[in-house]
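Appendix C: a fully annotated inverse folding record. The material below is reproduced so that readers can follow the format used throughout the book. The structure is listed first as tokens, followed by the designed sequence.
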């Protein structure tokens, strides 16, 4: 008999969209929205851990975000550095393991040192894996995986590419959430989201709270995940 316990997605991925619009609507600089977004992320991390989610992957800064206004990019970099100093000790106490996923070549030495220190400080934690995609793009991820295999002389197979991806240390996401009302992937986890359940929220990221997370999880729980099989096959497998 199938279990009556609602399924909690093991891996939740989030495009944290709407920080700038949240600030603009309040006649604040866009960076103020990103600061509020950090508060929302802190809330989301705790809520995911409390609900039994094993992996949370968030899109913090995309490869394309370098094209934003200079003052906003500069503010985001400063915010990242200060957030690392403030949040890492707390995350470590809460059992969260940090991974920073993305191209580090264009980042300052101070930033890179902060990322490495955060990963080393939290490496022993097992309650929740938090992947922060920073200077990341889905196409970059596929390209770097292919380049890695070519350098190693390995054939370009699906299995080998999957193992060479920047998120190979965790299973693919079960639930993909995007806030801010937009309905697109925006170059986030293109390879890994092949079978993720998509949920688009009208809430701007600073407004995304525990109730909004529960709504997304409830939507996930209401869906039948077939992975190319028929409903009859899925029913037989879970009976």
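Designed amino acids, in order:
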């Amino acid at each position: 008999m199938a279990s009556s316990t609602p399924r909690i997605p093991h891996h939740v991925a989030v495009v944290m969209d709407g920080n700038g619009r949240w600030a603009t609507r309040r006649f604040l600089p866009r960076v103020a929205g990103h600061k509020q977004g950090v508060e929302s992320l802190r809330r989301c991390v705790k809520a995911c851990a409390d609900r039994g989610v094993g992996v949370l992957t968030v899109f913090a800064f995309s490869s394309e975000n370098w094209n934003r206004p200079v003052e906003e990019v500069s503010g985001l970099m400063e915010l990242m550095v200060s957030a690392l100093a403030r949040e890492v000790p707390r995350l470590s106490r809460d059992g969260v393991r940090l991974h920073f996923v993305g191209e580090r070549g264009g980042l300052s030495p101070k930033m890179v040192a902060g990322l490495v220190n955060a990963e080393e400080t939290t490496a022993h934690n097992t309650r929740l894996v938090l992947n922060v995609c920073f200077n990341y793009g889905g196409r970059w991820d596929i390209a770097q995986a292919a380049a890695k295999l070519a350098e190693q002389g390995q054939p370009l197979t699906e299995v080998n590419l999957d193992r060479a991806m920047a998120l190979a240390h965790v299973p693919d996401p079960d639930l993909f959430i995007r806030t801010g009302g937009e309905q697109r992937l925006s170059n986030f986890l293109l390879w890994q989201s092949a079978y993720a359940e998509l949920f688009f929220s009208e809430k701007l990221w600073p407004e995304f709270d525990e109730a909004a997370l529960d709504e997304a999880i409830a939507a996930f729980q209401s869906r039948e995940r077939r992975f190319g099989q028929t409903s009859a096959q899925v029913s037989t497998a879970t009976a």
